[in-house]
Amino acid sequence: MPTPTKGPRLGGGPAHERLILANLAQALFEHDRITTTQAKAKRLRPLAERLVTFAKRGDLHARRRVLAVISDKSVVHRLFTEIAPDVAERQGGYTRITKIAPRKGDNAPMAVIELVRESLSPKQATVAEAEGATKRAAKKSTAKKAAATKAEPAAEAPAAEADAPYGEGSAAPLADGSAPEGFTIKGNEDSKKYHTPESPWYDQTEAEVWFATQEAAEAAGFEAPGTMPDAEEAAAEESAEGDKA
């Protein structure tokens, strides 16, 4: 015999339990409120609210699902035509359980289960609408953050630093080790020296970083070799040799 999922078993078996709950639901929809034990009221509530949900749907299939539980067609008609429209604005909570004094004789705990058919007050409607708007706004904000995270390139900042490792006027070597366009001064990171094309060690130096100007290299902390001729002096010497020729 299967064990019920909620609360104690009612009656002698599963079939008897279904009949008890069906009769209680029929009485509830017929009279709007009934007095029963607390155990039966708690077991009746989910069934009654499920049947009200079917009635709010209002189609033929829903009516047949309700008729499979409640055999009295007049009660089913009342459920669909009178009760369902009254709770159309509610999103649940169609029943209310109120505990009352114990039953005389066996002292069983008793309760009154009734349908909540009164319409939502303006304050309750406003609160419900505000809560729904807050939830929708939170979902939109989460979706926007997720989209922004996907759109941002993960390696954008490191790539920018790699392109200019020593700030403006510096550049990393290309994939083949050659100089980027406009960068002619080689820099050695170990010795912190830079070499212009006029330097006697220019061809022997492997550029670990390239600079566009001597000022950019010196601003990055690199120094010229002690015996390296200045670029202007080298140009002047070349000009003088040209005049002699």
What separation lies between the terminal Cα atoms?
A: 117 Å
Helix and strand content put the structural class at alpha+beta
Overall pLDDT: 81
**Overall strand count:** 7
Instruction: Report the principal-axis shape.
Output: rod-shaped
Q: H/E order of the elements? A: HEHHHEEHHEEEEHH
Taking all Cα atoms into account, the compactness measure Rg is: 43 Å
What share of residues is helical? 40-55%
Q: What are the segments in which pLDDT stays under 50 over at least 5 consecutive residues? A: 157-161
Number of helices: 8
| Strand residue percentage | 5-15%
Strand order of the largest sheet: 4-7-5-6
The biggest beta sheet reads: 4 strands, antiparallel
Would you mind describing this structure in some detail?
With 245 residues, the protein is α+β, with helices and mostly antiparallel strands. It has helices spanning 14-31, 38-57, 60-67, 73-86, 122-151, 156-163, 214-219, 231-244; strands at residues 33-37, 95-100, 110-115, 170-171, 185-188, 193-195, 209-211. The strands form two sheets. It has a four-stranded antiparallel β-sheet. Helix 2 (38-57) packs across helix 4. It is rod-shaped and about 130 Å long. The protein starts with 13 loop residues before the first helix and ends with a helix.
